[in-house]
Amino acid sequence: MTKKKKIEKIDKRIEKEEKKESRKIEKKEETSEAKKKKKKRKISIFTWICGFFDILVLLFFLVVYGPNQQFKNWFITTALATGHHKYFANVLYSEKDIERALKNNMVIEASDSTDVSEITFENQEKDTYESIYEEQILKRDEGNDLYKVIEIEEKDYKGFLVVIYDAKRISLVSARYGGQKLVDIAKYNNAKVAINASGFSYGTGREIPTGTVIQNGKVASVGGRNTHGGGLIGFTKEGVLMLTSDSATEAIKEGMWNAMTFGPFLIVNGKSAEVKGNGGWGVANRTAIAQRKDGIVLFLIIDGRGANGSDGISIKDMITLLEKYKAYNAANLDGGGSSTLVIENKLINNPRGYGYVGERKIPNGWIVK
């Protein structure tokens, strides 16, 4: 091999090595650039996530502690209306905030007791009706002169209104074993219709009715203190709904035959309670009992807490609804997870509490048989 060829061979090898080294450097630079871009992308995603949570926290504080009182009133009154989650209100708000919310959201009940002489028991069907509500009440279902079920569906709540044509068929019955589901209470008592009645506190494995219970003209039990307003809610032997804040002894003397304690009273002698704000009870599942001047009794059950697409109903809206159906006397019964309707031994509504779905044990119920 000549010297010239040797030099050419060496030059080619050097050039090859230089190209190889150049490719390595380029690859390294590309890898480094890719890493930088990837790191930048990770930082960008992390920044977005942090920013999103910052916005959520900011919105939370604006809603909870901002100048708008609507959420504060709703949250405090709804929490305090529950049986077991009252402490939620204290978690977010001070005693001063709670006191202010309750002051601005309350029910001012009529101070009178019911005038039983105003109930006439004249409720025949008519050829023409003054409103759709009147027609729904008075126009009976064919073959059923005892009761009728009206489905209630408004923008924010759904439920049922049961029309009872013979008030003398209504009675208050107690659960066995210290507490039962309403469907079992109804079956045992051969009830056609049943709704929940008393509020209750938990004792030693028993559901103890709040306040006084009267059955068959005698005091059946005296439980914990009633903190819901109202008073005794019950019927005379003649089927007249009585609402009174008198003692059980006085109520029995006045003709009270079956009764339980709860409240607030919503309508007394045709006069509706004054409601400030949402009434101090928030929005929830609710049960109410009412009677028209013509003697027809109304059982109102509204679902809540998202059951069947229903948020629940406020005390104010419940009064408005009962006014449409011409309730002359009306009272709020225990609500929340206790609100239950059973017809012909079947659960009709969708009971729902905090953390559970379906019926819970209750101490008693109003039945029609």
Side by side, the strands of the main sheet go: 2-3-17-16-18-13-14
Total of domains: 2
Q: How would you sum up the major sheet?
A: 7 strands, antiparallel
Classification by helices and strands:
alpha+beta
* Structure annotation, total helices: 8
N-to-C span = 123 Å
Q: Can you characterise this structure?
A:
The protein is α+β, with helices and mostly antiparallel strands and 369 residues long. It folds into 2 domains: 67-104, no CATH class; 108-368, no CATH class. It is built from 8 helices and 23 strands. It has helices spanning 3-65, 69-80, 87-92, 95-104, 132-138, 182-188, 248-253, 315-324; strands spanning 106-108, 147-153, 158-164, 170-174, 193-196, 200-202, 207-209, 212-215, 218-222, 231-236, 241-244, 256-262, 265-268, 271-272, 274-276, 286-292, 297-302, 327-332, 341-343, 346-347, 352-353, 356-357, 364-368. The strands form 7 sheets. It has a 7-stranded antiparallel beta sheet, covered by helices on one side. The chain starts with a helix and ends with a strand.
